[in-house]
Amino acid sequence: MQFGIFSVGDVTTDPTNGRTPTEHERIKAMVTIALKAEEVGLDVFATGEHHNPPFVPSSPTTMLGYIAARTERLILSTATTLITTNDPVKIAEDFAMLQHVADGRVDLMMGRGNTGPVYPWFGQDIRQGIPLAIENYALLHKLWREDVVDWEGRFRTPLQGFTSTPRPLDGVPPFVWHGSIRSPEIAEQAAYYGDGFFANNIFWPKEHYMRLISLYRQRYAHYGHGTPEQAIVGLGGQVFMRKNSQDAVREFRPYFDNAPVYGHGPSLEEFTAETPLTVGSPQQVIDRTLEFREYFGDYQRQLFLMDHAGLPLKTVLEQLDILGEEVVPVLRKEFAKDRPAEVPDAPTHASLLAAKNQSETVGA
Amino acid sequence: MKLVVVTAGLTQPSSSRLLADRLAEAVRQRTEAEVRVVELRELAVDVANNFVTGFANARLSEVIEAVTEADGLIAVTPIFSGSYSGLFKSFFDVVDNTALTGKPVLIGATGGTARHSLALEHALRPLFTYLRAVVVPTAVYAASEDWGGGRDAFTDGLGDRIARAADELADLLRHRAPRQRPDEDAVVPFADQLAALRPE
């Protein structure tokens, strides 16, 4: 099982001192956080993609390429890459290039994006969000698997005799996750391709995600990729920890109360009861995270949102220390218990390459 | 048969609730419907939180589910500044915009003076028409004076208007096919989704 963090990349004023980081400080902080993730033994760092203030990460592969150069093991990913408004040809090229510079430590998560104006800024229409996600991904999938592509669709200029370069490392396209907050069409898309499905698991009550994930698992089996239990599921989560849970609540409350996404709404207590947000001791985080398996089945990737709402870098790094030292080692051990042997790990470049070589050997 | 009554009265007891109860009782007598009354006052914070967080908490989603599943709806609001109250509109903003499609709805409103009664026609009726509900022709407005005499030689009294509206709603409820619950787990097979995008 993989553990990691995902970052929205928001520039938010620290409500406790009124200090707002510059874009430069925030970008450097994201890099520091990614390096720290590897240092404390996490497996994955994923960055968001945004094209409007107050968010900084508009150019994920630039950032991830730099992080790749300064890490050894960390898998570099996204949460999410906008499949609706980016040109699928450019996604194919950018992430294949990243795969080469990172020696395969790359996967990515497709998302539609829910900021209305971004669509017209990139010449698209938000009402076509799902058709864009379907058509663009179909093209991306082809570009990584066929050396010469002839293609025509609704949304992009046609291609004749086009080769996306560089070709994926070792002829193995990066593994793709599809992220969705509410759309069964995306669960269906992930299942069709045998790709991973990531439930952001931050906002809505768990029953909603249970339905989406169970739909994905059933359809994954329907399309012949394996049993429902073998489908590749990732989950988000959101935590803040201190040794004593009262300290965690006291310290996190002003950040929660002023957070751009849910601040000035429900109380911290109501929100933790209704969503997977956990604010408390490392043991509370362990207990809550282990419950996810009961709701969603054995899964492959757990990402935590740690650096948002104006939390200072120093605090985030402390959180990562706690996560890496006290939480994740226990989670690894507990999640491994009673895990059926047929439940696979999340695909990596190495595992996909091995599978490819094996099928070629069998085919030969 | 399930009838849900949504009232946005703020005081306790409120004249909106009083009107809602009289409408509900008149419909129940005609249909034997099972009546559930929802006081939006009790959900005011949950509705506001839904706006801020983007999801309904457990208490609010249970009410939204009941409204969605109801065979008929009675919706009553006080008239504020010439229209429905903000809380009334907010509740219907967080209900899914397909939840009321085809649903028989009786609308009512209360206010200090009968001069505001056309707010029912200018504000409430278009709201429910937008939501594709079937709104009965008689909308019932109760001004303060209606709780006394209210009737004159040229106008029906409150009781007459309640009876007429209840007849209309009961008639629709009796002739309505049972609500088909949409299959939430139904999926459009991916091949069909792809095929729909193929250039002509």
How would you describe this protein?
The complex is a heterodimer of chains A (364) and B (200). With 364 residues, chain A is α/β, with parallel strands linked by helices. Chain A has one domain (2-363): Luciferase-like domain (TIM Barrel, Alpha-Beta Barrel). Chain A has helices spanning 23-39, 60-69, 88-101, 118-121, 129-145, 184-193, 206-222, 245-258, 268-274, 282-296, 313-336, 349-363, and strands spanning 2-7, 44-47, 75-78, 81-82, 107-111, 149-151, 159-162, 175-180, 196-199, 233-235, 239-241, 278-280, 301-305. In chain A, helix 6 (184-193) links the parallel strand 8 (175-180) and strand 9. In chain A, helix 3 (88-101) packs across helix 5 (129-145) and helix 10 (282-296) packs across helix 11 (313-336). The two termini of chain A are 33 Å apart. Chain B is of the alpha/beta class and 200 residues long. The termini of chain B are far apart. Chain B has seven helices and seven strands; from the N terminus they run E-H-E-H-H-E-E-H-E-H-E-E-H-H. The model of chain B has no long low-confidence stretch (mean pLDDT 93). Chain A binds chain B through residues 130-131, 134-135, 138, 152-154, 184-185, 187-189, 191-192, 203-205, 208, 211, 215, 219, 223, 261-266, 270-271, 274, and chain B through 48-49, 51-55, 57-58, 61, 184-185, 187-191, 193-194, 196-197, 199.
